[in-house]
Amino acid sequence: MGTPSPRGVLVLAGVLVGLSAPWAAHGQPNFIVILADDVGWGDLGANWAETKETPHLDELAAEGTRFVDFHSAASTCSPSRASLLTGRLGARNGVTHNFAVTSLGGLPLNETTLAEVLRGAGYSTGAIGKWHLGHHGHHHPSFRGFDYYFGIPYSHDMGCTDTPGYNLPPCPPCPRHGAAARTTRKDCYTEVALPLFEDITIIQQPVNLSSLAARYAQEAARFIQRASTSGRPFFLYLALAHMHVPLGVPPSPPAPGRGIYGATLREMDALVGRIKEVADSHGKGNTLLWFAGDNGPWAQKCELAGRLGPFVGAWQRQRGGSSAKQTTWEGGHRVPALAYWPGHIPAKRTSHALLSTLDIFPTLVALAGAALPPNRRFDGLDVSPVLFGWSDVGHKVLLHPNSGAAGRDGGVEALRLGQYKAFYTTGGAMACDGSTGPAEHHHPPLIFNLAHDIQEQEPLAVTSREYQAVLPAISRAYTQALEDIATDNVSVADYSKDPAATPCCNTQHVACRCQAPRSAPAVPDHPVGRRATWLC
Length: 536
Known about the structure:
CATH superfamily: Alkaline Phosphatase, subunit A
Largest sheet: 11 strands, mixed
Helix content: 10-25%
Number of strands: 19
CATH topology: Alkaline Phosphatase, subunit A
Radius of gyration: 22 Å
């Protein structure tokens, strides 16, 4: 688990004293965390030779460290993001499944975010992009530690636009007349337009998806410039719309190969390259840039989904359904990850340490010289020694919570112990062919040796010596993990819904349509915390 023993703390502290000297003399480092959406492990050229669309990310890997055994804390949007920003699994922080457009709640207010800790340590904090941790009242990012917010409050398929982009099934544009608003399509939001926020103001509804990537890059550059001018260290959380559907219409015809997906992947890669360029221009060596994915590809989107690489979950595929997003198979949570910090993080290095997005919180807090929030336990580790190349040891045990395909949402029924992975419940999400894999419970658990079976094709025979040798350690680790969670300070998220919580800048117009100049003020037409209708 994430809380080390006292002896481990002393040893780690001794290592960090030696490591901290290079940046301690120059003050607190800047942090940029870039989170890609629904990106596959194989969507990074440095990971998978068939991928040719990521030259900037591949350059980032060459100039920094690539993590090949790195995992999202959950296999779906809201729980993954909540865990990144708290260092705690959904079983602790309360976020076990996705929030809706009409959600009244969000990440529980008694949970402390990374932004709140860093702002308390003197940082300028900004969030750009997808939030999906609650938008109503004080769940909005402007009340969760971020000095600046620019983005969409949830996934960009959760509202209609005038430029719908590419999705399966295709979704219609926003209606312009009342009768059209009553037209519904399966898996499409047709009644409320997708809003774009700047702080608590809706500045565009519906958002123009075709220019969204450029606007994110522009706002990120402005934030970095403002923070650098102020002389304060900064923390930028950039949660991209890429590679979640709908995929945008590329500015030029797609190159041969992966079509629309490839063109969108190339656009994401260019955006990351631009952020790296801006960060370097404000003092190369002052900023740690950490890139990762929020979960694996959304397989039911067929050619609009990413590459799994070798993590195909073959055992599940043989039984039906997808082994990617929403599942606890490797393809659901093993994600591409890179860290870049010239002069501090070794270049051209590949780390095989077992790491997670859970580790971002405690690691950045430690590097900032801040303290972890009290009265709670953390699933993440301070992995500074791994970042700096002093160690290649990460988690001994890593838990993989249910994320929609099978089992109770947020329940822990799969875990890693070294090279072994155990499943107490399996199931497949919807695949491209429309099939799903039924939930199956396993007592004793299925156990795979990932060192020899990365495709998760053949579990160890229960009667084998290897299975019998590793089962006691897995059972012990699983029992201890569940007991640790049960005795922790656990939060409960409010998942209640009310149509009044829908962000809407003009309730008099069909689909809440409005368009306001950037400088036009917008305020809620009510006190924050009551009816969440927003007027431009």
